[in-house]
Design goal:
This is Arginine--tRNA ligase. One of its GO terms (molecular function) is ATP binding. This protein is an alpha/beta fold. The protein has 3 domains: 2-84, Arginyl tRNA synthetase N-terminal domain (Gyrase A, domain 2, 2-Layer Sandwich); 112-268 and 305-364, 3-Layer(aba) Sandwich (Rossmann fold); 382-556, Isoleucyl-tRNA Synthetase, Domain 1, CATH 1.10.730. The chain has helices at residues 2-17, 39-47, 51-62, 86-98, 128-146, 162-174, 177-182, 184-199, 204-217, 221-245, 263-272, 306-321, 335-347, 381-399, 405-425, 437-440, 448-465, 479-488, 491-501, 505-524, 533-556; strands spanning 24-25, 35-37, 70-74, 80-84, 112-116, 150-157, 252-255, 276-279, 282-285, 295-298, 325-331, 354-360, 363-364, 433-434. The strands form 4 sheets. The protein has a 5-stranded parallel sheet, with helices on both faces. Strands 1-2-4-3 form a 4-stranded antiparallel sheet. It is globular. The two termini are 32 Å apart.
Length: 565
């Protein structure tokens, strides 16, 4: 709705003052209107007038255009306030109810967006940072698809580099075959840790690791076979966790090794064109013109780095897909790397795609410290999933002790993952997030389960009601009914802002506020007991439309809407 009002204003003032920046706001006090704008301040400043005078001129000029939709008032301080008419809200309610997928847009038609996540590393467990990347990346992809974009979900993982020489050396020395069969990723991690522990007292091991990686690069059959086995087992484990999370399948799955054959030609090209130069035996791209330190392409020992591989991957994406944008959903700690990558891409004129680093912060425990195991290690993603689902199961059993074990498991999985995902997405991604396990599952607070519970509550009313008609929507005059009809109008804006800002917290907040308004309505209005059939059916129409919108919104966040909790 905000965008509708903004477009009307922008179209009108374009000939007067050109393209200017102004805001459409939601006043904290409903007596000041459903929406308000500061556009009069912007125009008045340009024309040397008083804001109230300009606001009055705008009101007089636009009132006929907005006549069906809203009335306008000028506040004493110059804000222009909009009051939506009941007839307009009632009409829009029926239109929204009839839409198959309310909130869907066409702004992305014919445009491609590549979204890279979660950047896992082969031979290591998926950790909590990868969990954040997966949750954010999957939800962003859902949002862009809803806006009509052709989204390519890109799983780009680390499967190349000197660390694989160390792992192969460790594999040859200390592999426990039985442990590898039972828990491949766990055994890989043990081998990697053991290598570093042994290398602390035996420096020759580092040379052995370098030699094994050199053999791998040169195509040694044994090392290639070991590396392929490690890669395959890791990818199986990643896929298993993605399935547990319920995230959508990837459209592209590529590792750094897929660009191995392109690295030498790329380096030769960069040197030939004068983009890369030697520095203390290493090869760098000088980015001083961008105010950045040099990007390292190749170490003095000849080993390439992931900057080189990322440039190769970026070139491949742009050449193959010609995307409008490429989003990299990667932690804050990699900010410098992406600044360097994007600067190098501009210098190399790789294409016109908008390159965006969607940064996210750390995960903190309830004590405000970085979430870690007792040994101070990074927490594995699956440990987090196991814990939140187990806690959810306890709550589900307490609330519904008569549930079968299978039903309890299904609900607990959905509620647990709903709490986990919403806790992440309701906060700005740049911020560190706190894992307050109880708050994540709170059925009365700003949580995923609260919204899921609200949906289930509305679904229960509709199930009890059975068949119904639209009723007489002109009878929807209660404040709680008006609040719901008005809130429904803001759903498309919430989706659009998520795509524009690369954040999901606005959409999450919208769903919480819609659920909160629905619960207030539920407490104040006895729908099924209403003896006026036309009004009862109209109220059921409100409930059905709100429930459908909550379900669609939860789906965008990657959260399941349950009929029963």
């Amino acid at each position: 709705m905000k965008q509708t009002i903004k477009k009307l204003l922008r179209d009108y003032i374009a000939d007067l003052v050109g393209d200017v920046s102004f805001e459409i706001l939601t006043p904290p006090d409903p007596s000041l209107g459903d929406y308000a704008t500061n556009v009069a301040f912007v125009i008045a400043k340009k024309e040397g007038k008083k804001p109230a005078e300009t606001a009055t001129e705008l009101k007089d000029a636009l009132e006929s255009t907005l006549g069906e939709m809203a009335t306008m008032q000028v506040s004493s301080n110059g804000f222009l306030n909009f009051f939506l008419k009941p007839e307009f809200l009632q009409k829009r309610l029926l239109e929204i109810k009839s839409e198959a997928q309310y909130g869907r847009g066409g702004e992305g038609a014919g445009k491609k967006v590549i979204i890279e996540y979660p950047s896992c590393n082969v031979a290591k467990p998926m950790h909590i940072g990868h969990l954040r990347s997966t949750i954010i990346g999957d939800a962003l992809a859902n949002v862009y698809e809803t806006l009509g974009y052709d989204v390519i979900r890109w799983n780009y993982f680390g499967d190349w580099g000197t660390q694989f020489g160390k792992l192969i050396a460790s594999y040859k020395r200390w592999l426990d075959k039985e442990a590898f069969e039972n828990d491949p990723v766990g055994e890989m991690l043990r081998l990697y840790v053991k290598f570093h522990a042994e290398a602390a007292s035996n420096p020759e091991l580092e040379k052995e690791g370098q030699a094994e990686f050199k053999k791998l690069e040169e195509g040694d059959n044994e090392n290639r076979k070991i590396w392929s086995e490690l890669r395959e087992e890791s990818l199986k484990d990643f896929d298993r966790i993605f399935k547990r999370l319920g995230t959508r399948a990837f459209d592209q799955t590529k590792g750094e090794s897929d660009y191995e054959s392109e690295l030498k030609p790329i380096i030769a090209y960069l040197q030939e064109k004068g983009f890369a130069r030697e520095s203390e035996g290493a090869l760098i791209i000088d980015l001083a013109a961008h105010g950045l330190p040099p990007a390292l392409l190749r170490k003095s020992d000849g080993a390439t780095l992931y900057m080189t591989r990322d440039l190769a991957s970026l070139g491949d994406r742009i050449k193959t897909y010609q995307p409008e944008k490429i989003l990299y959903v990667v932690a804050n700690q990699q900010a410098l790397h992406f600044e360097q990558l994007f600067a190098a891409a501009r210098d190399l004129k790789l294409g016109d795609a908008g390159l965006v680093h969607v940064k996210f912060g750390m995960v903190l425990g309830e004590d405000g410290k970085k979430l870690a195991t007792r040994e101070g290690k990074v927490v594995a993603a699956e440990e987090v999933i196991d814990k939140i689902v187990a806690l959810a199961r306890k709550k589900v059993i307490q609330k519904n002790p008569d549930l079968s074990s299978d039903e309890a498991d299904k609900i607990a999985n959905s509620v647990g993952l709903g709490g986990l995902k919403y806790n992440d997405l309701k906060q700005h991604p740049h911020s560190d997030i706190v894992f307050d396990w109880d708050a994540m599952l709170d059925l009365s607070g700003n949580s995923g389960p609260y919204i899921q519970y609200t949906y289930a509550r509305l679904a229960n009313i509709l199930a009890k009601a059975g068949a119904y008609s639209d009723g007489d929507v002109s009878m929807l005059v209660e404040p709680s009914e008006r609040a719901l009809m008005k809130k429904l109008l803001d759903f498309p804006d919430a989706i659009g802002e998520s795509a524009k800002l690369y954040t999901l917290n606005g959409l999450a907040l919208y769903l919480y506020e819609l659920a909160h308004a629905a619960n207030q309505f539920y407490e104040q209005v006895r729908v099924l007991e209403d003896d006026n059939n036309d009004r009862k059916n109209a109220r059921l129409t409100v409930i059905a439309t709100v429930a459908s919108t909550l379900k669609q919104g939860l789906k965008l966040l990657g959260i399941e809407a349950l009929e029963r909790i």
